[in-house]
Amino acid sequence: MTARFPPPPARGCGTAPVLKERGQHEVFCGLTGIVWLHRKMQDAFFLVVGSRTCAHLLQSAAGVMIFAEPRFATAILEETDLAGLADAQVELDRVVTDLLARRPDIRQLFLVGSCPSEVIKLDLAKAAERLIATHAPRVRVLNWSGSGIETTFTEGEDACLAAMVPVLPESDARELVVVGALPDVVEDQMLGLLDALGIGPVRVLPAPRADAGYGIGPNTVFALAQPFLGDTLAALTRRGARHVPAPMPFGAEGTTLWLRAVAAEFGIPPEEVDRVTEAPRARARRAVAQAAETLSGRSVFLFPDSQLEVPLARFLTRECGMHAVEIGTPFLHRAILGPDLDLLAEGPVISEGQDVDRQLARLRAARPDLTVCGLGLANPLEAEGLATKWAIELVFTPVHFYEQAGDLAGLFSRPLRRRALLEGAAR
Questions:
Q1: Structural domains of the chain sorted by starting position, each given as residue range(s) with its CATH number in brackets
Q2: Which of 66, 222, 261, 372 has CB 3.0 to 4.6 Å from 246, enough for a Cys bridge?
Q3: DSSP assignment of 265-282, as one string?
Q4: Is 191 in contact with 146 (CB distance < 8 Å)?
Q5: pLDDT (tens digit, 9 = 90+) per residue, 100-144?
Q6: Which parts of the sequence bind [4Fe-4S] cluster (predicted)?
Q7: Is 373 one of the annotated binding-site residues?
Q8: How do residues 66-91 score in pLDDT, each as one tens digit?
Q9: 13: annotated binding-site residue?
Q10: Do residues 319 and 409 make contact, with C-beta atoms less than 8 angstroms apart?
């Protein structure tokens, strides 16, 4: 059965003017990415060089019990380090040596920069080079920055994956690499769909282990599973790999178009994709239709937060019947977001960057039915009578591909149903 979706708009947002916002930011720390990355890489360890605040953030965000043995920790910068009274590089070498002696299972060690380490100009790239000389080849040592200064929290994953690309082996093999950390259950579903289409071999980045046995080269094609991987895209392109542009796999339409784009690279026609995906596509549509009863005809305003905003707006407007007032995103990477922008009907304000006060003024003037925003804005807006959805929940919840389409739509319909119940009870 041929998959039928609404026709592309006569005029999409691909060439729409973009409102550039350069003001006060409300962002979550980039270290947060460790919370999902440490679960994906079974032989990796993330050592944050930061303050006690960094340690408390990771511990509370990850929900790791005190008797657990997580794959992350914080090397605390004490007052003597911050004041320059101690050699932080020497202290870091000592901490790493003790860590690797206690945890011989570690094969990849990430030195992760933070706001405090960047403020005191602690050179973690130099530290990584020095530690490689000591601990290679048993342990691969890399570094990246998860600092919350002028960044958004999903940039942590982008920085991590971009740091991994240069050390991947060279390869001439014809392979597909799917880039972006996905929950295991979603990744298994994705690999099952690609296998049913006869596409392979398929690799994932990040891989579960350092010795995953694949490389990057001119015959590598890669598809992004997350829209916030601009630096990783650039790093893979420098290695000679070729990007497959596609809408993000959110909802029935996004997933089908993503699979069609990948399949076309391997000579598989769209009709075959439609045949193989007929059953899960139908399940996705039925599940989305239930939530769409609440969402259809409602307006939504998306603050810049996770970089998921553009593909989410495409899903909400085309599959759930919503009307987008403004779609804000921290960075508008057209090589990644172009296919989603082309499917968005012209009309909403497209903004890049953040100026919280100006965006709040536009929000209050529009009074949308639903506002997607960060934690710091949600409670005050709820107090003003505006229904909100926490943007961070969209990153921590499985939302990709067919089987999660209904859950994704439900994340947006529940706040509206809850508000309707509260208003009914108040009467």
A1: 18-25+279-426 (3.40.50.1980), 30-151 (3.40.50.1980), 175-276 (3.40.50.1980)
A2: 261
A3: HTT--HHHHHHHTHHHHH
A4: no
A5: 999 999 999 999 988 888 877 888 999 999 999 999 889 999 999
A6: 29, 54, 115
A7: no
A8: 556 678 888 877 766 555 545 778 88
A9: no
A10: yes
